[in-house]
Every structure is written in structure tokens, then in C-alpha cells.
Amino acid sequence: MAGAVDLSALKQRAAAPAHSPAPPGAGSGTPGGVEITEANLEAEVLARSNEVPVVVLLWSPRSDSSIQLVEVLAGLAAADGPKWSLATVNVDTVPRVAQMFGVQAVPTVVALAAGQPLSSFQGVQPPDQLRRWIDSLLDATAGKLSGGGETDQPEQLDPEVEQARAHLDNGDFDAARAAYQAILDADPNHAEAKGAVRQIGFLQRATTHPTDAVAISDAAPDDIDAAFAAADVEILAQDVAAAFRRLTALVKRTAGDDRTKVRTRLIELFDLFDPADPEVIAGRRNLANALY
């Protein structure tokens, strides 16, 4: 997804083990940082990045440069304490997570804050350059996130949020959505709950569609329900622009209640992304042109 981390891989987390076994010759584990799987991605990367910057290292134990980079980053993370978090993704054992980040080579590093990517690079960097890069991340996010203080006190997590995250980590989307909805009912401005309810609801709906939903819609372009299913499948496939184009074209061909129905669904899809995402900006502009 342009400008945002794609959550579509979460749809398969319920069937994924908490820790994938390493392939032959891969070694015993990650040299440092929090090891990311499909099960803990939400809590350790997306949710955690609302508190402090999260530096995600996509690496392979088959790559000497990967191991070198993770060791340097682990040392910096240890030195900085709670100011930022290091998360490591072994591309050999969790390829779907690596796919979600669009990794093309290892090592690749992506920094996130508030669930959005801030900066990234590929390859090994000198330690002093990494130090300056980390410092720039901390400067850019200073005062904008809820964590990152100098204290070593453990995070005081709301028990209701902790329970909702646990349901999500266990792949129980129904229970997670209900728990987050309860949080949202009590606090309509709760950012994590608001985003989680939206995203889980989308995944629950989108993963029920047939795999040939796009072909079905193409064969019947004026079928609103078929277009909705196709747009969901396109977003899961990270073809966001195609999904927006499909529904915008349908807006142009409909009127009255049907047009309102299509426009409402398109806006719901916009809301899955950062409002500053270029695809969303273009999509909203195209929708406005279609309406007027």
C-alpha cells in the first residue's frame, strides 16, 4: 500500500504459529531485537509505534551483512533504552510479513511511527551514520508519541487494550473486534481502537470473498455488490489504486441511493489509510470529480 504498512497479511495470522521454525542452516534465532511474526506484528510494530519509533530490520541469517547490521542496531537500541524499539523480521521464516513491507533485498530497514513509515534504507550503513539516522528519527518524533521517556518503568497498559491485543494475537478477530469496540464506545477518540475496529472489520469482510471476485465484477461492471467484493480483494492484493478506480467509475454510472451506497463504501476504504497517502488524496479528488 502506498505510504502505509499493509495489514492484509493479518488475515492469515489465525493459522500461523507464534514462532515459525528456522529453515535448515538458518541458525537458532534472531541476533537481537524483538523477533516479529504474523502473530505479534500488530502489537510489537503497529501498536508499539504509537508509543515510540519502531525500527524494523528485514534480514536473513544467510546474509552476513544482515547479521552485521542487526548487531549494530541491537547495540544502539540497548544504549538508547526505551526511546525506540528494534523489531527484526527473518524473511526466510516469515516471508508474508516481508512481502507486506515490500522488501526487495536484505538487509532492509524501515522506521515507523504512529503506524506509518517515516524512513527506510537498504544495505549496511556505518555505525556513525546509523547513529545519526536514529537521532534524526528521535528528533522527528519528539513529543508526538506517547512513549519514549527516560524512565525504565514498565509500560502501564490499559487492561482492556491488553486483552484486545491478546485476542488479536491469538487470531480471534471476533473477540478482538468486540473488545476494541467496547473501548471505542467508552472513548470515541481512542486512536488504536478506532483503527483496529476499522481494519479488523475490513479483513473479516474481505477474506470471505471468492478469489475470482475481480473477474466476476469485470464481467458485470454495474453489479454493486460484485464491485464491492472486487475492490476488497484488490486492496488485499495491495492494488489500492485499482480498487479506488473501480468504485469511482461505478459512482459515475449510478444515481440516487445506489450512488450514495457506492460513495459511502469508497469513503470507508479511504479511511483504512493515512489521509496523507497519495493514493487516498488522488482517490478523493477523483471521487469529487465524479460527483460534480
Description:
It is globular and about 60 Å long. The longest helix has 17 residues, at 64-80. By secondary structure, it is α/β, with parallel strands linked by helices. It has a five-stranded mixed beta sheet, sandwiched between helices. The chain has twelve helices and five strands. The protein is 51% helix and 9% strand. Strand 2, helix 2 (64-80) and strand 3 (85-90) form a beta-alpha-beta unit.
SSE sequence, one letter per element: EHEHEHEEHHHHHHHHH
The gyration radius over C-alpha positions equals 20 Å
What structural category characterises the helix and strand content?
Answer: alpha/beta
Shape: globular
What distinguishing features does this structure have?
9% strand; single chain; 292 residues; five-stranded mixed beta sheet; 12 helices; alpha/beta; 51% helix; disordered N terminus
Concise description?
Helix content is 51%, strand content 9%. It has helices spanning 41-47, 64-80, 95-100, 127-141, 159-169, 173-186, 191-206, 213-219, 224-236, 240-253, 256-270, 278-291, and strands at residues 34-35, 54-59, 85-90, 108-113, 116-122.
Question: How are the SSEs ordered, and which strands pair?
Answer:
Blueprint: E1 34-35, H1 41-47, E2 54-59, H2 64-80, E3 85-90, H3 95-100, E4 108-113, E5 116-122, H4 127-141, H5 159-169, H6 173-186, H7 191-206, H8 213-219, H9 224-236, H10 240-253, H11 256-270, H12 278-291
Parallel strand pairs: 1-3, 2-3
Antiparallel strand pairs: 2-4, 4-5
